[in-house]
Amino acid sequence: MTAPDVLRVLVADDQTIVRDGLVALLGLLPEFEVVGTAGDGAQAVARVAELAPDVVLMDLGMPGVDGVEATRRLAAEHPDTAVVVLTTYADDASILGALQAGARGYLTKSAGRADIARALQGAVARQVVLDADVQARLLRAAGTPVPPPPVELPDGLTEREAEVLRLIAAGRSNQEVARELVVSVATVKTHVNHLFAKTGSRDRAQAVAYAHAHGLVPRSG
Q1: Under a CB-based contact definition with an 8 Å cutoff, are residues 123 and 104 in contact?
Q2: 129 and 186 belong to one structural domain
Q3: What is the pLDDT of residues 59-95, one digit of tens each?
């Protein structure tokens, strides 16, 4: 008997080798049980009606009824079954079509096992999980600036220490840094002492050289 916290999954993909690979991959994860497979969208809808899985891992480019139409039918006829798209397509039309049809997750086939597991679990919990590239495309399509990926700072510097270091490299005095960051001069001195210790700098000149060597200041020209 299936444990109550095990999610029942249906895998829908028209390529047998991909379908079998996904079944094998999910079989390695104790939190999932693959209850069936489908080779096209129409079969996926029929198998959901028969098996009532918690979630369908759905390809898009299938013959006959494609993944978008199958997702639309499942959302209308079997709303308790979540759909996560796993596809090679990452164009705006495919992404928007699938999400508008009711998919709760969208991954490309470069996704790893952990990404797939997270998306399946999130979909059942009524959360939308998107591949990072997919999310970026949606933001661009909506005209929203895509934030740059976070930069890992060297030697344990905090964001504020790096900010102080950039201002020092720009020639600001402690008093000017304090005014710009709206903090006290004593606070700036504390940050300076910390960043000196972390960067191994004895003075401001060495700290400036460190900032340039580690790309912490914009290049001129």
Answers
A1: yes
A2: no
A3: 999 999 999 999 999 999 999 999 999 998 878 788 8
Q: In the chain, how many domains are there?
A: 2
Q: In one letter, which amino acid is 165?
A: L
Phi, psi of 9 (to 5 degrees): -120, 140
The CA distances from residue 98 to 67, 129, 203, in Å, are 8, 13, 57
Of 88, 114, 141, which residue sits at a domain end? 141
Q: Which domain holds residue 12?
A: 7-141
pTM beyond 0.85, yes or no: no
Q: Could you give the CA distance from residue 195 to residue 177 in angstroms, rounded to a whole number?
A: 14
My answer on whether 85 and 189 are in the same domain is no
CA dist 74 → 2, 70, 87, 90 (Å): 24, 6, 18, 22
Three-state SS across the chain? CCCCCCEEEEEECCCHHHHHHHHHHHHCCCCEEEEEEECCHHHHHHHHHHHCCCEEEECCCCCCCCHHHHHHHHHHHCCCCEEEEEECCCCHHHHHHHHHHCCCEEEECCCCHHHHHHHHHHHHCCCCEECHHHHHHHHHHCCCCCCCCCCCCHHHCCHHHHHHHHHHHCCCCHHHHHHHHCCCHHHHHHHHHHHHHHHCCCCHHHHHHHHHHCCCCCCCC
Task: Note whether 135 and 196 are same-domain residues.
Answer: no
Tell me, what CATH number does 175's domain have? 1.10.10.10
